[in-house]
Each structure stands twice: as C-alpha cells, then as structure tokens.
C-alpha cells in the first residue's frame, strides 16, 4: 500500500485524485485514468513535443503528465503499466546523481516546467512540480512537492532504473548532453533568467558533438536527421564577406574548429603557420572586393622554405607522398589559401538560412520567444562547431549550430543541431582587361614566381557556392 507522508500543495486540475475521496475510489480512478490515457495518447500521436497542439482547452501536457504520475503513485491496487511506460520514458537521470545510491530524475513538461523525482530511500522519493504561473502582469516561478513511499514507489524506481540502463546503452552522449542543456534552458525560463556566459551544459554538448564526429568522421551529417534540404546554388553577394579575414583568424587561431587540407586534418606545424598568417591579415578591415581579398591571400602563401618544413612534418606523420604534394600545392597557391578563408566564413549559414523556410521559422520562433523565455538565448547559435576542408580548387564547410525546434503551440521545444553544409569551387573569370601577365608559358616562370601563373591571377578569380541544411533533433 502506498503511504503519502506529506501533501504540501492543493490539487491543480479537476482530474486530481482528491476529488474521488468521497466516491467509489477504484471505479472513479479507472474512469478518470482511461480519460487521461486517451488525452495522453492523443497528444503523443499529434507529436507531443514536436508539432503538437494542446487538445484540451483546460489541460496542458504538464497538467496531464502530473495527474497521471500522481494516479500511479496514489492508487492502491491499480498499477497501470500502460501509463507508467509512457511516463518513464520522459524522465532522465541527472548526470551528477547517475552513480549515486539515491538518484534524481527529471522530466521536462513544457517550455518552463519540469517534474523532479528525488529518491530518498529504496521505496521513497519526493516529487516536485516546477512551473510558472501568471501573477498579476508577470509569470512567477512556482513549485510544489509531495513525498511518497511504498510498494508502487519502489516499483516505479525500478522502472526508472531500468530506463536508465537502456538510455546508457541506447542514447548517444550527444543526446544525453542535449537533454541536460534542455533542462538548463527550461530552468532558466522558469526563473526568467538569461544565461550570459558559456555554461557547463553548453560545453558538454559541444564536446559530445566533437567526439561523435571523431568516431564517425565520414558522417558529419547523421543518417537519422529529421530534415534535409536539397543542395542548391547559393547567391552570396560580395559585401557579405566583410568578416572573411576575421572569421578565418578566429577559427584557425582558437583551435576549436576542425580544419583539414586535402582531406587530412592539419598537423601542429601547418596550424602554427596558418595561425600566424591569418592573424597577420586580420587587421585589414574594410576589405570588400574579391580581387582585394585575393591580393591579400597572395601575401601569405607558403614560401619554398615553409613548404619544405611542412613536407617533412607530413612525412613524419606518415602521410602518403601524393597527398603530401597535394597539400603543398594547396598551401603554396593563392587559390588554396583563399579556399581556407572561404571555408571558415560565417556568411554561408546566413545565406542558407535565407533560402530555407524551416530555418527561418526556427530562428523566428526563438527570437520571438525570448521576452517570455529568456533561457532560449543559449540556442541562438553560440554553441557551434565548424569543420573546414580546403584544397587547391575546392572547399567544404560543415557548420554545426545548436538551436531549438519549438512546437507549433509554442509551449515546448527540442534541442536541435542545425547542420549547414557548403561546397565551393574556384574558377577564372574571363573578363580580364590586361592579359599581359599570361603571355609567357607556365614553364617560363614556374620556378621564378608562381603568383604569375594563370591560375594564380587573383584579378579574375571567382567562386561558385552551393549548399544545404540538415537538422538533427535530440529527444
């Protein structure tokens, strides 16, 4: 039998157990539970946390969830696994209690609400319902708790523990980290609090994303993405690359971005050269023209001596000869250095967003919800990870930007990784006014000045861009 050791708050909905105390308890519970199961099922079938609409005018998902949980814990002999199985999957053990004797589980139940179960014994725990309520002209954080003990509690703890084991082996570290970040956002929303510094939850998610890509480097875009757009040509105007020099300096200099050349992650020798070179150009503000960028790139191509140092370092790393020479050709050319810069540009996610209705709606939903849910500020792109691969004539940029997918009702969300993939290739535009530089053959000046080669004539170099968006949602 369940023993309710304390009851510190009044009932919230007409479905709470207290209304049945003067009725035939068993039958009343059965009838109401059946009704709530139908409501729960209907919400689940409509998407629940994805694109659900609140089906009842009087009950939110949080209210239904709470009522069903209390039914399970309050009922005397009516233990409904068809309910508990639904509820348990929403609870996640907190990382700090995962290895403790007594654990804490939390289920987010809305944009600013969650239910916390804190175990206090083998058959005892406290249930705390945290939410916001309109008080006057503003939303105020509210919480209410109850202590439970008994057979049903012990069995429910067992179900939660079994679910923990399943999650440990079935959920990726990324999903676990995303759940922790979601809880942090929900908690901040409930407190009307905005997070200004990078939080531990953000760091852990970025770390998990990085580790995942190292395990599957050929799958920067997961197979199970909830959305993938078609690849299409990008229309990026010259003026949109105003931060091109600063972007490359930051991504190369900070060392948190994953940069490869000709498919090989750059080693410490190449990284140090590029860090110094990109920093040297970062002070050239105000550059807007393609030809001016190319002129600057020509000033930092790798010299023969630098190429020799790089070649030796690659040989020590065991990089095969053909790939070594491809890397050297790339680093010693204006086009290759330019492709590094474009591979680090922040302009492409903006351009891809502009042409995708799903991305536009996601960004608008977050921005419009900031006033009432300030915790969403961490999901405006500050957790991101860039992967750049550049070669002599092409580049690929894969940019992870953590955002949120908010449901249509605007009362719940999921953490989502918006993956922006951009492809670029350079070509020589044939409108040159002065072709005098190209009158001699490449053989004539091959060892004199590579900048005079037709492919290094920066005046007419152009690039084509294409790309697409994929969205990986974590639940």
TrEMBL record:
Polar residues bias: start-end ranges: 1-12
Annotated region (Disordered), positions in chain: 1-25
Name the UniProt record assigns to this protein: Uncharacterized protein
